[in-house]
Amino acid sequence: MMKTLFTTLLCGVTLTISATITQAEILKIGIGTQSEESSSLIVSEMSDALEEYDYTAIAIPYADSQTSLNNVLSGKIAAALSPLDLAARSMTAENDPNESLLLIGGKLIPEALFCAAYQGGSIRTYDDLTDVQEQPIKISVGNEKGTAARTFQQMMKLDSDLKNIEFFYEENTGLEFNRLLSGRRDLVCFVTMPNPDNELVETVVEHDELFFITLNNPSFDRAKIGKIRPYDIMEVPITSGFFGFNQKKVKTLVTWLGLVINENKTEPKLLDALTTVVMEPGLLPSNSLWGQTKQLFDTAVTSIKDVIE
After folding, report:
1. DSSP collapsed to 3 states, 191-229
2. What percent of the chain has pLDDT over 90?
3. Which CATH architecture has domain 22-110+257-299?
4. Which CATH class is domain 112-255?
5. What are phi and psi of 282, to 5 degrees?
6. Which DSSP symbol is given to 141?
7. What is the signed CA dihedral for 125, 130, 132, 136, rounded to 10 degrees?
8. In this predicted structure, what is the pLDDT of residue 26?
9. Confidence at residue 55, expressed as pLDDT on a 0 to 100 scale
Protein backbone atom coordinates (compact mmCIF):
# COMPACT_ATOMS: atom_id res chain seq x y z
CA MET A 1 0.00 0.00 0.00
CA MET A 2 2.77 2.43 1.05
CA LYS A 3 4.80 1.49 -2.01
CA THR A 4 1.81 2.16 -4.25
CA LEU A 5 1.18 5.52 -2.54
CA PHE A 6 4.85 6.52 -2.85
CA THR A 7 4.87 5.56 -6.53
CA THR A 8 1.71 7.58 -7.12
CA LEU A 9 3.18 10.65 -5.37
CA LEU A 10 6.48 10.28 -7.26
CA CYS A 11 4.64 10.10 -10.57
CA GLY A 12 2.61 13.15 -9.61
CA VAL A 13 5.73 15.17 -8.76
CA THR A 14 7.41 14.04 -11.97
CA LEU A 15 4.41 15.06 -14.02
CA THR A 16 4.28 18.43 -12.29
CA ILE A 17 7.96 19.07 -12.96
CA SER A 18 7.61 17.90 -16.55
CA ALA A 19 4.61 20.16 -17.06
CA THR A 20 6.54 23.13 -15.66
CA ILE A 21 9.46 22.46 -17.97
CA THR A 22 7.31 22.01 -21.06
CA GLN A 23 5.43 25.23 -20.34
CA ALA A 24 8.58 27.31 -20.82
CA GLU A 25 8.67 28.78 -24.30
CA ILE A 26 11.95 28.96 -26.20
CA LEU A 27 13.21 32.45 -27.05
CA LYS A 28 15.82 32.35 -29.82
CA ILE A 29 18.30 35.25 -29.70
CA GLY A 30 20.65 35.66 -32.64
CA ILE A 31 24.27 36.59 -31.98
CA GLY A 32 27.26 37.27 -34.22
CA THR A 33 30.23 34.95 -33.93
CA GLN A 34 32.61 37.92 -33.50
CA SER A 35 31.36 38.42 -29.92
CA GLU A 36 29.93 34.94 -29.46
CA GLU A 37 31.48 34.15 -26.08
CA SER A 38 30.33 37.29 -24.25
CA SER A 39 26.97 37.34 -26.04
CA SER A 40 26.28 33.70 -25.14
CA LEU A 41 26.94 34.44 -21.47
CA ILE A 42 24.62 37.45 -21.57
CA VAL A 43 21.86 35.39 -23.21
CA SER A 44 22.31 32.78 -20.49
CA GLU A 45 21.86 35.44 -17.81
CA MET A 46 18.79 36.79 -19.59
CA SER A 47 17.38 33.27 -19.67
CA ASP A 48 17.75 32.94 -15.90
CA ALA A 49 15.87 36.21 -15.42
CA LEU A 50 13.13 35.15 -17.86
CA GLU A 51 12.39 31.87 -16.06
CA GLU A 52 9.66 33.39 -13.90
CA TYR A 53 7.90 34.51 -17.08
CA ASP A 54 8.01 30.95 -18.49
CA TYR A 55 10.61 31.66 -21.15
CA THR A 56 13.97 30.03 -21.82
CA ALA A 57 16.42 32.07 -23.93
CA ILE A 58 18.98 30.33 -26.15
CA ALA A 59 21.73 31.89 -28.28
CA ILE A 60 21.70 31.19 -32.02
CA PRO A 61 25.12 31.98 -33.54
CA TYR A 62 25.32 33.44 -37.05
CA ALA A 63 28.33 34.21 -39.21
CA ASP A 64 27.68 37.93 -38.72
CA SER A 65 25.28 40.17 -36.81
CA GLN A 66 23.58 41.45 -39.97
CA THR A 67 22.30 37.95 -40.72
CA SER A 68 20.74 37.69 -37.26
CA LEU A 69 19.07 41.10 -37.72
CA ASN A 70 17.71 40.03 -41.11
CA ASN A 71 16.24 36.92 -39.47
CA VAL A 72 14.58 39.05 -36.79
CA LEU A 73 13.04 41.21 -39.49
CA SER A 74 11.74 38.15 -41.36
CA GLY A 75 10.43 36.53 -38.17
CA LYS A 76 12.75 33.49 -38.23
CA ILE A 77 14.00 34.35 -34.75
CA ALA A 78 12.49 36.52 -32.03
CA ALA A 79 15.45 38.73 -31.13
CA ALA A 80 19.08 39.57 -31.81
CA LEU A 81 21.88 40.88 -29.63
CA SER A 82 23.48 43.27 -32.11
CA PRO A 83 26.10 46.03 -32.25
CA LEU A 84 24.16 49.27 -31.95
CA ASP A 85 25.58 50.91 -35.07
CA LEU A 86 24.52 47.92 -37.15
CA ALA A 87 21.09 47.86 -35.50
CA ALA A 88 20.67 51.58 -36.11
CA ARG A 89 21.47 51.14 -39.80
CA SER A 90 18.90 48.33 -40.05
CA MET A 91 16.28 50.56 -38.39
CA THR A 92 16.51 53.48 -40.83
CA ALA A 93 13.47 54.41 -42.94
CA GLU A 94 15.16 52.92 -45.99
CA ASN A 95 15.84 49.50 -44.42
CA ASP A 96 12.84 49.27 -42.08
CA PRO A 97 10.03 51.36 -43.64
CA ASN A 98 7.35 49.68 -41.50
CA GLU A 99 9.24 50.44 -38.28
CA SER A 100 9.15 46.77 -37.31
CA LEU A 101 12.45 46.65 -35.41
CA LEU A 102 12.55 47.84 -31.83
CA LEU A 103 15.42 48.30 -29.37
CA ILE A 104 14.63 46.98 -25.90
CA GLY A 105 16.37 49.12 -23.29
CA GLY A 106 18.56 51.09 -25.71
CA LYS A 107 22.30 50.83 -25.00
CA LEU A 108 22.79 47.64 -23.00
CA ILE A 109 26.30 46.24 -23.13
CA PRO A 110 29.37 48.47 -23.75
CA GLU A 111 32.12 47.30 -26.06
CA ALA A 112 35.33 49.34 -26.23
CA LEU A 113 37.55 49.78 -29.27
CA PHE A 114 41.16 49.17 -28.23
CA CYS A 115 44.01 50.06 -30.58
CA ALA A 116 47.47 48.87 -29.58
CA ALA A 117 50.64 50.55 -30.85
CA TYR A 118 54.37 49.80 -30.62
CA GLN A 119 56.60 52.08 -28.53
CA GLY A 120 59.17 52.14 -31.31
CA GLY A 121 56.63 52.74 -34.08
CA SER A 122 55.48 55.87 -35.91
CA ILE A 123 51.98 55.96 -34.39
CA ARG A 124 51.91 57.42 -30.89
CA THR A 125 48.64 59.38 -30.79
CA TYR A 126 45.42 59.80 -32.75
CA ASP A 127 46.94 62.86 -34.45
CA ASP A 128 49.55 60.61 -36.04
CA LEU A 129 46.73 58.76 -37.81
CA THR A 130 45.53 61.96 -39.47
CA ASP A 131 48.95 63.39 -40.37
CA VAL A 132 50.20 63.11 -43.94
CA GLN A 133 51.99 59.77 -44.29
CA GLU A 134 54.36 58.66 -47.04
CA GLN A 135 53.13 55.09 -46.72
CA PRO A 136 49.64 53.79 -45.81
CA ILE A 137 49.11 53.15 -42.11
CA LYS A 138 48.78 49.39 -41.61
CA ILE A 139 45.96 48.59 -39.20
CA SER A 140 44.81 45.12 -38.14
CA VAL A 141 41.07 45.00 -37.39
CA GLY A 142 40.24 41.30 -37.20
CA ASN A 143 37.31 39.76 -39.08
CA GLU A 144 36.31 41.78 -42.13
CA LYS A 145 32.66 41.73 -41.02
CA GLY A 146 33.48 42.20 -37.33
CA THR A 147 32.81 45.13 -35.03
CA ALA A 148 36.37 46.52 -35.04
CA ALA A 149 36.54 46.67 -38.85
CA ARG A 150 33.09 48.23 -39.18
CA THR A 151 33.72 50.74 -36.38
CA PHE A 152 37.02 51.91 -37.84
CA GLN A 153 35.47 52.28 -41.28
CA GLN A 154 32.72 54.40 -39.71
CA MET A 155 35.40 56.52 -38.02
CA MET A 156 36.91 57.20 -41.44
CA LYS A 157 33.55 58.49 -42.67
CA LEU A 158 33.32 60.82 -39.68
CA ASP A 159 36.89 62.12 -39.92
CA SER A 160 37.97 62.85 -43.49
CA ASP A 161 41.62 63.07 -42.40
CA LEU A 162 41.59 59.33 -41.66
CA LYS A 163 42.28 58.26 -45.23
CA ASN A 164 45.72 56.80 -45.92
CA ILE A 165 44.99 53.47 -44.24
CA GLU A 166 45.47 49.83 -45.25
CA PHE A 167 43.39 47.28 -43.33
CA PHE A 168 44.45 43.74 -42.46
CA TYR A 169 41.67 41.28 -41.65
CA GLU A 170 43.53 38.75 -39.53
CA GLU A 171 41.52 37.10 -36.73
CA ASN A 172 44.45 35.86 -34.62
CA THR A 173 44.99 39.05 -32.60
CA GLY A 174 47.78 37.52 -30.53
CA LEU A 175 49.76 36.81 -33.68
CA GLU A 176 49.02 40.33 -34.90
CA PHE A 177 50.70 41.71 -31.76
CA ASN A 178 53.87 39.94 -32.90
CA ARG A 179 53.53 41.52 -36.35
CA LEU A 180 53.12 44.88 -34.60
CA LEU A 181 56.34 44.28 -32.66
CA SER A 182 58.02 43.22 -35.91
CA GLY A 183 57.10 46.44 -37.70
CA ARG A 184 54.59 44.70 -40.00
CA ARG A 185 51.64 46.60 -38.50
CA ASP A 186 51.22 50.14 -37.17
CA LEU A 187 48.15 49.40 -35.06
CA VAL A 188 46.30 46.31 -33.88
CA CYS A 189 42.68 47.08 -33.04
CA PHE A 190 40.02 44.91 -31.44
CA VAL A 191 36.65 45.35 -29.75
CA THR A 192 35.73 43.69 -26.48
CA MET A 193 33.67 44.26 -23.36
CA PRO A 194 35.70 46.60 -21.12
CA ASN A 195 37.31 44.26 -18.67
CA PRO A 196 40.86 44.74 -17.31
CA ASP A 197 41.13 40.95 -16.96
CA ASN A 198 40.57 40.40 -20.67
CA GLU A 199 43.47 38.39 -22.08
CA LEU A 200 44.16 40.77 -24.99
CA VAL A 201 44.00 43.85 -22.77
CA GLU A 202 46.36 42.23 -20.25
CA THR A 203 48.80 41.30 -23.02
CA VAL A 204 49.17 44.93 -24.10
CA VAL A 205 49.25 46.40 -20.58
CA GLU A 206 51.88 43.95 -19.33
CA HIS A 207 54.18 44.30 -22.36
CA ASP A 208 56.87 46.99 -22.04
CA GLU A 209 56.80 47.89 -25.73
CA LEU A 210 53.02 47.99 -26.32
CA PHE A 211 50.45 50.60 -25.34
CA PHE A 212 46.92 51.71 -26.20
CA ILE A 213 46.47 54.98 -28.08
CA THR A 214 43.73 57.51 -27.30
CA LEU A 215 40.75 57.74 -29.67
CA ASN A 216 38.93 60.95 -28.78
CA ASN A 217 37.72 62.79 -31.87
CA PRO A 218 34.56 64.74 -30.85
CA SER A 219 32.81 63.81 -34.10
CA PHE A 220 32.64 60.17 -32.97
CA ASP A 221 30.73 61.05 -29.81
CA ARG A 222 28.20 63.20 -31.70
CA ALA A 223 27.67 60.87 -34.66
CA LYS A 224 24.19 59.58 -35.43
CA ILE A 225 22.91 56.80 -37.65
CA GLY A 226 19.32 57.64 -38.39
CA LYS A 227 18.18 59.05 -35.04
CA ILE A 228 20.39 56.81 -32.87
CA ARG A 229 23.74 57.86 -31.41
CA PRO A 230 25.66 54.55 -31.30
CA TYR A 231 29.04 55.73 -29.96
CA ASP A 232 30.46 57.36 -26.85
CA ILE A 233 33.94 58.44 -25.83
CA MET A 234 34.87 57.19 -22.36
CA GLU A 235 37.80 56.50 -20.12
CA VAL A 236 37.96 52.74 -19.87
CA PRO A 237 39.96 50.97 -17.15
CA ILE A 238 42.74 48.73 -18.44
CA THR A 239 44.03 47.63 -15.02
CA SER A 240 42.12 46.50 -11.95
CA GLY A 241 44.06 48.72 -9.56
CA PHE A 242 43.96 48.15 -5.83
CA PHE A 243 40.36 47.37 -4.86
CA GLY A 244 39.29 49.48 -7.84
CA PHE A 245 41.54 52.46 -6.98
CA ASN A 246 44.45 53.82 -9.04
CA GLN A 247 43.27 52.09 -12.18
CA LYS A 248 45.06 52.87 -15.42
CA LYS A 249 42.61 54.00 -18.09
CA VAL A 250 42.54 54.76 -21.79
CA LYS A 251 40.24 57.26 -23.45
CA THR A 252 38.62 55.56 -26.40
CA LEU A 253 35.52 55.05 -28.49
CA VAL A 254 32.84 52.83 -26.97
CA THR A 255 30.17 51.14 -29.02
CA TRP A 256 27.32 49.08 -27.61
CA LEU A 257 25.29 45.90 -27.92
CA GLY A 258 21.53 46.27 -28.03
CA LEU A 259 18.64 43.80 -27.94
CA VAL A 260 16.54 44.07 -31.11
CA ILE A 261 13.12 42.50 -31.65
CA ASN A 262 10.47 42.60 -34.37
CA GLU A 263 7.61 44.41 -32.66
CA ASN A 264 5.09 43.28 -35.28
CA LYS A 265 5.95 39.60 -34.75
CA THR A 266 6.37 39.55 -30.95
CA GLU A 267 3.59 38.52 -28.60
CA PRO A 268 2.66 41.16 -25.99
CA LYS A 269 3.49 38.73 -23.17
CA LEU A 270 7.05 38.26 -24.43
CA LEU A 271 7.46 41.97 -25.14
CA ASP A 272 6.44 42.79 -21.56
CA ALA A 273 8.75 40.14 -20.12
CA LEU A 274 11.76 41.35 -22.11
CA THR A 275 11.06 44.96 -21.19
CA THR A 276 10.93 44.07 -17.50
CA VAL A 277 14.05 41.89 -17.56
CA VAL A 278 16.16 44.32 -19.55
CA MET A 279 15.05 47.62 -18.02
CA GLU A 280 14.36 46.85 -14.37
CA PRO A 281 17.34 48.06 -12.27
CA GLY A 282 19.05 45.39 -10.22
CA LEU A 283 17.09 42.51 -11.69
CA LEU A 284 20.23 40.76 -12.91
CA PRO A 285 22.63 39.59 -10.18
CA SER A 286 25.57 41.87 -9.44
CA ASN A 287 28.00 38.95 -9.80
CA SER A 288 26.79 38.17 -13.33
CA LEU A 289 28.74 39.21 -16.44
CA TRP A 290 26.08 41.74 -17.37
CA GLY A 291 25.81 43.03 -13.81
CA GLN A 292 29.58 43.39 -13.41
CA THR A 293 29.87 45.27 -16.70
CA LYS A 294 27.12 47.70 -15.74
CA GLN A 295 28.72 48.20 -12.33
CA LEU A 296 32.08 48.79 -13.99
CA PHE A 297 30.63 51.62 -16.03
CA ASP A 298 28.69 53.05 -13.10
CA THR A 299 31.71 53.26 -10.82
CA ALA A 300 34.95 53.16 -12.81
CA VAL A 301 34.34 54.67 -16.25
CA THR A 302 34.22 58.45 -16.56
CA SER A 303 32.18 59.77 -19.46
CA ILE A 304 33.78 62.78 -21.13
CA LYS A 305 30.87 63.98 -23.23
CA ASP A 306 31.23 67.61 -22.10
CA VAL A 307 34.98 68.07 -22.32
CA ILE A 308 37.29 66.15 -24.63
CA GLU A 309 40.94 66.91 -24.21
Report:
1. EECCCCCCHHHHHHHHCCCEEECCCCCHHHHHCCECCEC
2. 57
3. 3-Layer(aba) Sandwich (3.40)
4. alpha beta
5. 75, 5
6. -
7. 90
8. 92
9. 95
